[in-house]
Prior knowledge:
Layout: H1 4-15, H2 19-29, H3 36-41, E1 48-53, H4 56-61, H5 70-77, E2 83-87, E3 93-98
Antiparallel strand pairs: 1-3, 2-3
Amino acid sequence: MKTFDERLAAYFAENELAEDMQQAIKRCLGQPNSASTEIIADVDQETQSYNYDVNFESILDMFENVFHDVSLFNQLCGYYGTYTLFVTEELEGIAVEQL
């Protein structure tokens, strides 16, 4: 079974992402932490929604249309962005969106 770093490197290679985009994605994802149930339990159902997938790469695919523009990706997923991205201990992906 591949590690988080191996799967992320394979995703970058498959999508031929520039180094600056790779760094932006790494910043937004962070490192795997918590179980999906813990993260989802913290979602405020009135002001947030979430997307979940058993493969964190599928959550990244939601943003593939902005992979050409690091600035736009950072606006969506950066510190003040609309989305917060998580990778769970089981390498599942969760994108929490502010409504």
